[in-house]
Write a structure and sequence with these properties.
The protein is of the alpha/beta class. The protein is built from nine helices and ten strands. It binds zinc ion. This is Glutamyl-Q tRNA(Asp) synthetase.
Length: 299
């Protein structure tokens, strides 16, 4: 069985260097094992999206030689699949309506959830969210990069939203349905998503999907420790500088290209990266060198 991986960006802005690192790591991890690498655009939340961002991200991946297999999948076109899965959860009694607002949860001092709506169901089903009961109070998984992770959920703390009060499907549900539908065997992504994993494992179990293997690379930060993200306006990367950026990305991931690759082309660098891919060499902390700006970036 070949392994199948994916890169799943949200089109909330152009690709930034942190996302490029995640895409590259996932690509090398899969290609080094002769697997298939897919791209899925997670455009589930229109108000947060930026027009043209999805195309920009795809063009940037191509410019870096990160070519994907098959068609790009868009979550905005898959609501039927998510609805079906939600119905399964409702029918089997693990999803329940919840009309708690964030404000109410805050006022009750709730961490995670307190089971309120399971005991006192909302009077009407208009504008309700659906939560899934987290049935496994103890969970662990072995992350290929971060090692063993343990989780313990008290009461209804772990119950999580799969359908939002604003009528949108939640990230957790869409991701799990898509990973199963696309036959994803290996997920490599940023460690900002690591604590979503137990919820996704729970959903996979409830929906009868096989769990993929998980690997989380550290989230890259600025030298001052601040996360490099769309939220703090990390600049888009400039494909003009792709050779330098690719070299820098490989080095940051601990896969430093050997000196004899000084004149290598993009393809040669990627081929080298596949042949020499070593997840164990990824450093525990990824941070940009101080005072040394990434080429092609405006700060
Ligand atoms: Zn509630």
């Amino acid at each position: 069985m070949p392994c199948i991986g994916r890169f799943a960006p949200s089109p909330t802005g152009p690709l930034h260097f942190g996302s490029l690192l995640a895409a590259l790591a996932s690509y090398l991890d899969i290609r080094s094992r002769n697997g298939f690498w897919k791209v899925r655009v997670e455009d589930l939340d229109p108000p947060r999206e930026q027009p043209g961002a999805a195309d920009h991200i795809l063009r940037t991946l191509e410019a870096f030689g990160l070519h994907w297999d098959g068609e790009v999948v868009y979550q905005s076109q898959r609501h039927d699949l998510y609805q079906e899965a939600l119905q399964v959860l409702i029918d089997q009694g693990t999803a329940y309506p919840c009309n708690c607002s964030r404000k109410q949860l805050r006022a009750r001092g709730v961490q995670g959830y307190d089971g309120h709506c399971l005991h006192q169901p909302p009077p009407a089903l208009a504008n309700v969210a659906y939560r899934v009961r987290h049935l496994q109070p103890r969970q662990h998984f072995n992350d290929r990069i971060q090692g063993r992770r343990d989780y313990h959920w008290h009461g209804h703390q772990g119950d999580f939203v799969v359908f939002r009060r604003d009528g949108l499907f939640a990230y957790q549900l869409a991701v799990v349905v898509d990973d199963a539908d696309q036959g994803i065997t290996d997920i490599l992504r940023g460690s900002d998503l690591i604590d979503e994993t137990p919820h996704q494992l729970e959903l996979q179990q409830q929906l009868g999907y096989p769990p993929p293997d998980y690997a989380h690379i550290p989230v890259i930060t600025h030298a001052n420790g601040q996360k490099l993200s769309k939220q703090n306006l990390a600049p888009a990367i400039d494909p003009q500088d792709r050779l330098t950026l690719l070299r820098q990305a490989l080095s940051l991931l601990g896969q430093g290209p050997s000196p004899d690759l000084a004149d290598a082309t993009l393809t040669e660098l990627l081929d080298w990266g596949c042949l020499n891919w070593n997840p164990a060499a990824i450093p525990a902390v990824l941070s940009l060198p101080a005072a040394k700006h990434l080429p092609g970036q405006v700060y």
